[in-house]
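Hi support team,

I submitted a single chain yesterday and got back a structure, but I'm not sure I'm reading the token output correctly. Could someone confirm the output below corresponds to the sequence I sent? I've pasted both exactly as they appear in my results page.

Thanks,
R.
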Amino acid sequence: MGESKSAKYYAQNPKAAAKKAAYQRKLNKKPAVKAASEERWAERKRRGIAGKGGKDLSHTTDGRMVLESPAKNRARNGAGNNGIRKPVKRKR
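Hi R., thanks for writing in. Yes, this is the structure output for that exact sequence:
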């Protein structure tokens, strides 16, 4: 497992890890979650970057998907699931 605080916690607490895994399995079966995952994967395939690691595809406020470093994308989206999209600079 990784070195994050949560990874260490779940490594030391198997009951909590099992509960989290059960929740995650249930969540991943939802049609909306499946559709979002398929959309991201299809876009990565279209761009020829699927399965190669690298940058994330980040949703912008105007609905486009742009490449962005994982650190920036995941930090902005935050731990609180606040759902903030990448702001777009508007041409004036």
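A quick pointer for reading it: The chain has two domains: 13-53, 54-92. Let us know if anything else looks off.

Best,
Support desk
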